[in-house]
């Protein structure tokens, strides 16, 4: 039984297969490869993109999808997460797609070995399908990523997107720079750290902007995010005429993470990331439910 807890559990060959399948699915609509499969989505945190993207991906491959809304489930009557999961597994799904606020939840459920567990974002640490779709989007524009550089800008410490990317992108030969104020900088000294994007902008091929994850802060970090934006908002003035891809996992805080004008700039690939997310999730479902 194969799970997707993070991309660290995928071999290089499996990552290549996911990217190749995603590219093929984007070119030619596939047949209903997962016609007889049933997936259950279980999202303990809000989602616009990931949940609907998984559902669209599953349906494009002919699978059935059932969603359990935890706010209306028996978790509110005291049922443990493990018991909720075991009861869903008793309905014999082929996989459960889970988003949870705790870093360890996908691993704990995967270790129960009851069905294939697919991590749709856990705590501050892992969001493997986002990292894969970011990889796919960068490869589409840049070809090989060997020797390319990415600056990750914003609330890196609280970002599961950043942490999954920081594990995946160097595997592809990319150099990662971290750009953030001290309060948003993670403790790792594995990557070069910068207080301002201007310090490194001439050396990078990609900028990934991140939202301030206010819901994960124990106390307010900045009183005024307009002040933060003066340093970290991505604008046409900051980018100039440089040939740089701009990524953001969403949701974008307009004029704090990225300016209105920059969101319309052709270098900004935010909606392309969302489109690619469907193809990547199709490829992930194929790998986990059919090829493993
Ligand atoms: N990128 C991402 O995880 O977006 P959602 O929170 O809307 O799913």
What does this protein structure show overall?
The chain has 292 residues and is of the alpha/beta class. The chain has 2 domains: 7-127 and 274-291, Aspartate/ornithine carbamoyltransferase (Rossmann fold), CATH 3.40.50; 128-270, Rossmann fold (3-Layer(aba) Sandwich), CATH 3.40.50.1370. The protein has 10 helices and 9 strands. The chain has helices at 12-27, 49-60, 81-89, 105-111, 128-142, 160-168, 225-232, 236-239, 260-263, 270-291, and strands at 38-43, 64-68, 95-100, 116-122, 149-153, 175-179, 193-194, 206-209, 245-247. The strands form 2 sheets. The chain has a 5-stranded parallel beta sheet, covered by helices on one side. The protein has a 4-stranded parallel beta sheet with strand order 2-1-3-4, sandwiched between helices. It is globular. The termini are close together. The mean pLDDT is 96. Bound molecules: phosphoric acid mono(formamide)ester (CP). Phosphoric acid mono(formamide)ester (CP) binds next to helix 2.
Give a quick precis of the structure.
With 292 residues, this protein is of the alpha/beta class. The protein has helices at 12-27, 49-60, 81-89, 105-111, 128-142, 160-168, 225-232, 236-239, 260-263, 270-291; strands spanning 38-43, 64-68, 95-100, 116-122, 149-153, 175-179, 193-194, 206-209, 245-247.
